[in-house]
Design goal:
Number of strands: 4
Oligomer: single chain
Order of helices and strands: HHHEEHHHHHHHHHHHHHHEEH
Largest sheet: 2 strands, antiparallel
Structural class: mainly alpha
Distance between the termini: 19 Å
Helix content: 55-70%
């Protein structure tokens, strides 16, 4: 059988493979694993470009605002890397000045770090553009969400087995100074952020599966996947991630209660029964986990101490704030924060007691102690206010597009597209909140998941938009999708 637009199918398949690979390969934090993720995204973008050339057009057109912001980030970042003013010396461990092509123009403080950071940024932005194209197709939106759902459940099962003492080979590779590990992440907050990105994908699939008449098995599978992720979020010891998990569940639950139970039809009655079952299941799950929650209880008992000025975060944020103020419109270069922090004159003896300071080597894995634990401040330091404005437009513009898709359908029977965007909006809001006190948007595997959600969000153009999976051309309709399209979920 002939496959229509094979290069487009290859591009989408490579994104799906990247979604599975990135979190399981130790979060794509080790340089070798990161290179693998970047290679998958690069091959996906190449296949996408070949498809566009064969069809003599870029199909469908990407949003101009998104293109402008991505173009500016690439232009600014690569110019800063090309015009770098310093290079790391392996002999002395210092950053030595070098002669840049344009000494009077802005440039990165270290050349190798900037180049490596821009390779990752380029791969992620290319993947984002590919997903914007794919996500206009209901089938590809569903495939991407299913890839997230199965990967998240697999990660959850592995993490729980690890905490129970059944798995040791991954933990043996992790540093004891990186925090409490969970699953394939050396830092439990990153693991929690990953779970908070996966749970909305499963909920979105559950919402859409509700619209099918013969999807009982699909709903049961999704409920099992969701239960795995929720148990893992409970077992994981990240307080901030757990709080966000509760918030997103409350938000999704309230929306479900207000939106899906309206009316007197069979679907509304089914939704009401599902809510009752979910509440009972949550109570039973809480009772079953109660004897095993002593670690989580100990972590929450430490919260008052963490909120004082003596905590590590409270001490690194003022330093990052001063750096951000001094970075100007173009910043200090991609990836510069980890090189600046150990050399900052603002470090104090109190800070050394709460923070592990070391001078990172370009090309080596980045430690949690080399991050600002506040993604927006770190973006200002590295890209300046111009680059941070472009990156913020991509992130919050995607949130606005997802919100618009949900809001436009508020008075209409919920269509599959709208139900998907509810999950997308929840995931993006969760990571945007988590970025205010951790660094999920500095971890490559989490960046990939955020990029996929943003691609789905930026793909929305109207309240009821679908795409032809063969041609990629947009088609607008005013009625819900036919049941034949909904059956995609059970495949």
């Amino acid at each position: 059988m002939k496959i229509a637009r094979p290069f487009r199918q290859v591009a989408g398949g490579l994104v799906v493979v990247a979604l599975i690979y990135a979190p399981l390969a130790l979060g794509s934090i080790p340089p070798v694993a990161l290179a693998g993720m970047e290679g998958l995204l690069a091959l996906s973008a190449l296949s996408w470009v070949l498809d566009a050339l064969l069809n003599l057009r870029i199909s469908p057109r990407l949003p101009p605002i998104l293109l402008a912001c991505c173009g500016w980030l690439l232009l600014q970042g690569w110019f800063m890397a090309w015009n770098a003013h310093g290079a790391f010396s392996l002999t002395t461990g210092d950053i030595l000045p070098i002669t840049s092509p344009l000494p009077a123009a802005p440039g990165a403080i270290e050349r190798t770090v900037a180049v490596l950071a821009m390779l990752r940024v380029t791969a992620l932005l290319a993947g984002l553009c590919v997903v914007v194209d794919l996500a206009r197709d209901l089938i590809w939106r569903t495939r991407l969400l299913w890839a997230m759902a199965w990967t998240g459940a697999s990660f959850s099962l592995f993490g729980m087995a690890q905490q129970a003492g059944f798995v040791h080979f991954v933990a043996a590779q992790m540093s004891m100074y990186e925090g409490a590990y969970f699953g394939t992440y050396n830092y439990h907050a990153n693991a929690g952020a990953f779970l908070n990105l996966v749970i909305p994908a499963i909920c979105a699939l559950l919402f859409v599966a509700r619209s099918e008449r013969h999807a009982t098995r699909t709903r049961l599978v999704l409920c099992a996947l969701l239960a795995c992720c929720l148990v893992a979020a409970t077992v994981n010891t990240s307080r901030g991630a757990q709080a966000i998990t509760v918030l997103l569940l409350v938000g999704l639950g309230c929306w479900t209660g207000l939106r899906l139970t309206q009316g007197e039809g069979a679907a509304a009655r089914l939704a009401r029964r599902a809510l009752v079952i979910a509440c009972v299941g949550g109570v039973v799950l809480g009772i079953a986990l109660a004897p095993h929650l002593h670690r989580m209880e100990q972590k929450w008992e430490q919260l008052p101490e963490v909120l004082t000025g003596d905590s590590g975060r409270m001490q690194v944020w003022p330093i990052a704030t001063v750096m951000a103020r001094q970075s100007g419109p173009f910043g200090r270069g991609p990836g510069a924060f980890k090189m600046l922090l150990p050399r900052s004159p603002l470090l104090t003896h109190a800070f050394y007691r709460r923070w592990i300071i070391h001078r990172p080597v370009p090309g080596a894995a980045v430690s949690m102690w080399s991050q600002a634990h506040e993604d927006y401040l770190q973006a200002l330091v590295e890209f300046g206010w111009l680059g941070a404005l472009a990156a913020g437009t991509v992130l919050f513009g995607g949130i606005a597009r997802a919100w618009g898709a949900v809001w436009r359908d508020r008075n209409l029977p919920p269509a599959p597209q709208t139900l998907v965007y509810v999950g997308v909006l929840t995931a993006l809001l969760a990571v945007a909140l988590h970025s205010t006190f951790d660094f999920p948007q500095q971890v490559s595997s989490l960046q990939l998941y955020v990029a996929v959600y943003l691609g789905i969000a930026w793909a929305t153009a109207s309240p009821r938009t679908t795409a032809n999976s063969e041609s990629g051309e947009l088609a607008t309709q005013d009625v819900p999708l036919p049941e034949a399209d909904l059956a995609v979920l059970s495949r």
